[in-house]
Write a structure and sequence with these properties.
- The chain has a single domain, classed as Four Helix Bundle (Hemerythrin (Met), subunit A).
- 60% of the residues lie in helices and 7% in strands.
- The protein has a two-stranded antiparallel sheet with strand order 1-2.
- β1 and β2 form a beta hairpin.
- α3 packs antiparallel against α5.
- The radius of gyration is 16 Å and the shape is elongated.
């Protein structure tokens, strides 16, 4: 029996990215209401050696589109990493969702057993598709999305668990 790789990845990514777009909009609204320069929030980080919000959002979208593309055996779109505003970050998230929605379940057939190879810095990694999704893609995706949420929450943006998880 094969594992439903499309069902385990694409709906998960698109749902979570939709919530991330909402979180970013709440941050933009918060900055406007409190007369905070949005760049302060966009460049905020939880600790000096961690990525700022900007990079957390970029990594979240990169991991979703690249991880899904590897599983579907296609090339993801390339984004320039040139966002500097909340509207631009939200647009990046929406572009990622739009790309993910172009992928079809048939492209993921056999992806659970297929070997997936990718670069991490100067290293090359290879895992079975299911391991790639469960041990690398999903944990990294949610790590960076959670960090983005935590940065904004730490900076006073009124966010709660429902903003992150959405309704059921």
């Amino acid at each position: 029996m094969t594992f439903p790789m499309y069902d385990a990845s694409i709906p998960t990514f698109t749902r979570a990215l939709g919530h991330l777009a909402g979180i970013l909009q709440k941050a933009a609204d918060h900055a406007a209401a409190k007369n905070i320069d949005p760049a302060v929030l966009i460049e905020s980080r939880l600790y000096p050696d961690m990525f700022p919000l900007l990079k957390q959002v970029q990594r979240t979208t990169d991991i979703a589109k690249s991880g899904a593309a590897r599983l579907a055996q296609t090339q993801p779109p390339s984004f320039e990493d040139n966002e500097t505003t909340f509207p631009q970050l939200i647009e990046r998230v929406r572009k990622t969702i739009a790309y993910l929605e172009t992928l079809k379940p048939e492209q993921f057939e056999g992806a659970d057993e297929r070997m997936v190879t990718w670069q991490i810095g100067e290293r090359t990694k290879t895992l079975r598709g299911i391991s790639h999704l469960q041990q690398f893609v999903l944990p990294n995706f949610f790590f960076h999305e959670t960090a983005a949420y935590a940065i904004l929450r730490h900076n006073g943006v009124k966010l709660g668990k429902r903003d992150f998880l959405g309704g059921f």
